[in-house]
Amino acid sequence: MKEKKGICQLGIILATALTFLFSCSDSREQFDRTNNVQPQTGDGATVVNQDTLSTLNFVGSGNKISAGGSNTTGQLSTEEEDRRIRENRVKPIMYDEGSISGINLKTTFEKASDILSTPEVYSTDSGPLYVYGEGIYIFWRDNAPRYPELIIVTGDYEGNLDTQNADYGKLFIGKSIAELYGPDELLGEGYMKGLFNILHNKEEGFDCMAARRCEIRYFEESNAILYMLPKLILRVSSDRKEIADMRIILDESSGEQNAPFDIIQGSFISPEGTSLSLGQTYGELLAFQKKPTEFIDPTTDGMNARYGKVYNVTTRSDYDRDYKVPSNEEVLKAFYLTNDFENVFMINGEVLNYTFSEEDRAYSLQRGSFEGSEPMIMKLGFDKNKGLKELQIPFLDDFRNIILEGMTELPGMKGYSSSGRNYIKDTDYMRNSVYQYDPITNTGKAVFFSMDRIQGNLSFIETDLLDSEFNRMIGDAYFTPKSVDLRAGLTSHGDFNFGDIVEFEKLDSTKETVTIKMNGMSERVNIDEHAIFRKVTLTEGKYIEREVMTVSPSNFPLTLILEKKAFPQQVGDQVTEVMKNVVTGISFSLSHDQAFSITCGAQNVELFFGQSDVKTLETLEGLSSCQKVMEYSTDGANQLETVYLPELKLMLNFDKNDFASVTTYQN
User: Fold this and answer.
1) Residue 54, pLDDT score
2) Is 97 helix (H, G, I), strand (E, B) or coil?
3) Among candidates 319, 321, 128, 288, which has minimal Cα distance to 305?
């Protein structure tokens, strides 16, 4: 089953060494639905963020998709290629302009084609990676303006960044900085602060780390220290203290949205006291920001306007491919804040704070001020390198609970989901979702947040309006326990039933989107027209595969499995057949405090979504009278993917050691 595209936090791994923020789950079923956006540009390439960039040992990893193809003038002659490489690879790196090799972060893809050599292009999970003979790698933004998202400087580049300082000198790949470390420094805090002050013309005593304008991140597993400046990331080997690579990034201000953000209300309060909240319009966003933004991307059912560290998701009333910018009447339906958001968070007007004692290995998280605290900032998480990994899950639970508590006064039902907490590998993210839904008004809010397992930093936070018309068909069911037994198999979930007809309009197979209509409601959704549905017959070990379509309406975790079936149609005196899209399977999960019960004869067990695969299998041992078939991944990890219960026409789906969803189906 192909998962629903969305904000998903896209995990991009180049070879096994270059790791970015925003990792998409590779679950067989979608787990949480968030609005379709932020990390993605129009064609699905990822917006590279200055988060967990670790190591880079690129040696042609990934699938090479072309040699060249960048230059608009056609294939260059050998002489011209050599000339460009010789000249461009020795040009200086300019920090203020973000320039290297004759281009900068505001050079368009087309303009760069007239300056740089012909690149080799590699297919990666984050989109095409362009590898230039000058010794630089570039991820280009897909949508106009096609600016670089990230420029990576490798050891083949011969230019340098001249700090114009006698002690710091010129920065280049392979340069040792060990002599600039203080005697008691493990990670070079003094070096980081001094470099920032030199590059930003600050007084010697300015502390960029305290001001949260720079940051140090340490990756023990990959022997890497990252010095993260606003416009540059230096990766330094932690043993030899040599610069391993440099990454040039865009330092774009969030403008008026660099302001306190209320997680529950979904609103920003500017220094002047004006506010911007979910439900207001794109025109009001422009008035709040006092300027438009160049970074606007279409999403499945919206438009995504980025200001620095904040993504603003609007509705989209027109699905024409030429629809480039939201109209002023489009409504803001989600705010997504990246992990380097610079301001404070509030819960219903009260600042969210924590205190932390490294000596006691303890923390305190609460709303409102208390002595000795400082506002909680997105990038301040629990650093694994201080030995605090055991506090990550308790912190996530406390953070979730304080959000649930903040939703108490909102009408309707509340619930939550989590994923990644049972993953046996230390290379991914733990994610949480908190839902509030009022079935009377068919409105609500959802808060999503994630923690980087390696560093313990909060990776993002997002507040959404639950804006789907289809929420009414599923919202109540998400918060309600569910049961299945041999006498009464599941044929529905919420108001979605086997046999329902789903109409398609404006199918776009290229972008894999479609408008679906049923019960007088419509919504733009992602579609997989060629999903492979695999089930097990009552004969143990025999698998049957068939091609189906999948769509995911509503803001709650639900996927419909559709198949085309022929129906008789009277046309005059003739009876013909018409093909319709029929629901033949439903995949879903519930709030994680609600049970999913399975009964086989006199035996009954209760499962809870989000629990570990080990715990789930132990619980299923209580169903000895029911046939069970286990399917494991074939990628070498040997992870449990599915437990089939063919007598109940039921599949239990697992994602990275979590019990993630249930699929019930017709034969």
Assistant:
1) 36
2) coil
3) 288
